[in-house]
Amino acid sequence: MADKIANDLYHFNRDIASFSDALTRLREQKKQLEEDLQALHGMWQGDAHSAFVSRAAADLNEVDDLVRGFEELQKNLTDARDEYTDCEKDISSMIDFMKF
C-alpha cells in the first residue's frame, strides 16, 4: 500500500545521493587545495606571501563554513525523507487496520 501513496521518493533518494556525492567531491577538492597551498607556502617569502597566506586562510575558513552548511542540509534532507517514509508507513498501517 505504501507504494501507492508514496510521493516521488525514488527521485528524492536519487537527489540525496547526488548531493552526497557532490559533498564528498567538495571535501576531497578542499583537501587537495589545502595540500597545494601548503606546498606553495614554502616557495617564496615577503609581503605578497604574507598577504596571500592570510587571504587563503580566510578563504579556507569560508569553505569550511560552506561545507558545514551543506552537511547540515544533507542531514535535513535525509531526516525529511526518513520522517516522510515513517509517516507514510504509519498511514498505510492505519488504512490496513481499517480494512475489514
Describe this structure in words.
This protein has helices at residues 2-5, 9-41, 47-98. The protein is mainly alpha-helical. It has one domain: Helix Hairpins (Orthogonal Bundle), CATH 1.10.287. The mean pLDDT is 89.
Compressed to H and E, one letter per element, the order equals HHH
Rounded to an integer in angstroms, the radius of gyration calculated over CA atoms is 23 Å
Rough outline: rod-shaped
Quantity of strands, as a count: 0
Strand percentage lies at under 5%
Total separate domains: 1
Q: Tell me which CATH architecture applies here.
A: Orthogonal Bundle
First and last CA, distance: 16 Å
- CATH C-level class: Mainly Alpha
**Helicity range:** over 70%
Count of runs of 4 or more consecutive helical residues: 3
Average pLDDT: 89
Low-confidence stretches: none
User: Sheet bearing the most strands, described?
Assistant: none
CATH topology: Helix Hairpins
Structural class: mainly alpha
Descriptors:
100 residues; mainly alpha; Helix Hairpins; rod-shaped
Short summary of the structure?
With 100 residues, the protein is an all-alpha fold. It has helices spanning 2-5, 9-41, 47-98.
